[in-house]
Amino acid sequence: MHSIRCSVESCSYNKNQECNARVIQVGGKGAQESKQTCCGTYLNCGVYSNLAEYTEARDNVEAILCRVDTCVHYGNDHCTLDSIQVGCGERVDIYTETECQSFERQ
Q: Which residue range is the domain that position 70 belongs to?
């Protein structure tokens, strides 16, 4: 099982700084730094309500899918880490404003 610490407060899957999505998708093919990555699973709670209320019984994340082939943790479209950190700047409205802060360039 995987775990995701998440500081993106506007995400529908965020509950107490933990992601409650079953599977997440990290994007940013060819990224050279973490700012060029994103969490494709992000859904704005202002639009989608609070999905964490419906997913909290799921325990941990089952898979961290990854399209960032320039990261040392990339392996066959999956992240090889058991735990990652997702974050953002001040305000997030869409998924491209998030980032995988566990990104390490090859």
A: 3-100
Question: How far apart, in whole angstroms, are the C-alpha atoms of residue 97 and residue 4?
Answer: 17
pTM of the model as a whole: 0.88
**Ramachandran bin of 17, using left for φ above 0, alpha for ψ from -120 to 50, beta for the remaining angles:** left
Residue-wise burial string across 19-47, b where 16 or more C-beta atoms lie within 10 A, e elsewhere: bbbeebbbbbeebeebebbbbbbbbbbee
C-alpha to C-alpha distance for 52 and 37, rounded to whole angstroms: 23
User: What's the Cα-to-Cα distance from 49 to each of 13, 28, 69, 93, rounded to whole Å?
Assistant: 9, 26, 32, 13
> According to the model, what pLDDT value does residue 6 have?
95
Domain count along the chain = 1
